Amino acid sequence: MERFAVLLLNMGGPDSLDAVEPFLYNLFSDHDIIEIPKLIQKPVAFVISKFRAKKTRHYYELMGGKSPQREQTEMQAKALQKLLPEKFIVKVAMRYWKPFIEEAVKEALQEGAKGFILLPMYPQYSKTTTGSSFNEFDRVYSKLGLNLPVVKIKSYHNHPLYIRAMVENILSSVKKPEEYFFLFTAHSLPVKVIERGDPYKDQTEETVRLIMEHFPKVEYALGYQSKVGPTQWLKPETEELLKKLITSGKKKIVLIPVSFTCEHSETLYELDYLYYNLAKELGVEEFIRVPTLKDHPTYIELLKELTLSAFQELERQPSDSAYTQSKS
């Protein structure tokens, strides 16, 4: 029986406090994130990671000493594997920490993979997330001299099952939605990335709009978080929005991470520590943070549907073809 690999692409996170600095080095060495001359990319990444490591290490100390992203992505992989036929091999493939994309590809090949489906854990496409993982896969593919069919799932930000999973997840945390203000939060990006045609902002806004069609009586806003560096990033910033909402009289707020499917520092530190404490200081009455999807049954059903649809594309490719297909 021919077998095919499904790579769940995610960022990855430090699995110990000692891993924080090398994780940051890998992150800032990525030209898809920091666009500086490649000749000095790694030296600059070394300096940045040294400079930021102590502060970032503190974040992870508050989170219990590591990121839970690997374990949660493995939960997603295990849940998806149960729903798929035996011919599929589901592997976790991280961009900046173990298990790296190359490791996942090699393991899949050892288990007999005759083709690859790249399935990002990022619902909205950006060149800095999904695009970066695709580029790394392409480098590994070339390095290993592969000549196998590949399908790349680009995004699923408006897929009905994704929207349903988000709505169900919100309703499991909020019993009377109409009594609250919904504050959506997404990871920010430099404005220059969007101006070059990156669809992330438009896709994120569409996701929020489709979710809110299920809550017609609820007020809402979308903010962006996790800005790094002095350049102009997407606005409004989630933190500033939160301040304005509470000081203007909004006392019941639901915080909804919309671009994350696993917990990590952006949710466990920024949302649950920084924003929670800020909201309490400003006198909020109720502050509910909706968890990320993780292995929510409807989300896993979506991953199954995306995989089976992508496999139809894979079957149409010649078995000896190195052609790669992007599928939105």
Describe the 3D structure.
The chain is of the alpha/beta class and 328 residues long. The protein folds into two domains: 184 residues, Rossmann fold, CATH 3.40.50.1400; 130 residues, Rossmann fold (3-Layer(aba) Sandwich), CATH 3.40.50. Helices cover 46% and strands 16% of the residues. It contains eleven helices and nine strands. The strands form two sheets. The chain has a five-stranded parallel β-sheet, sandwiched between helices. Helix 1 runs antiparallel to helix 2, helix 3 crosses helix 11 and helix 6 runs antiparallel to helix 11.
Give me some keywords for this one.
328 residues, alpha/beta, Rossmann fold, 2 domains, five-stranded parallel beta sheet, 11 helices, 9 strands, globular
Architecture per CATH nomenclature, i.e. the level-2 architecture of the largest domain = 3-Layer(aba) Sandwich
CATH class descriptor of the largest domain? Alpha Beta
In spatial order, strands of the major sheet run 2-1-3-4-9
Structural class: alpha/beta
For this structure, the CATH topology of the largest domain is Rossmann fold
Number of helices: 11
Give the radius of gyration: 20 Å
Order of helices and strands: EHHHEHEHEHEHHEHEHEHE
Question: Between the first and last Cα atoms, what is the distance in angstroms?
Answer: 28 Å
Helix content: 40-55%
Number of strands: 9
Please tell me what the overall shape is: globular
Q: Which stretches are low in confidence, meaning pLDDT under 50 for 5 or more residues running?
A: none
Number of domains: 2
| Overall pLDDT level | 95
- β content, as a range? 15-25%
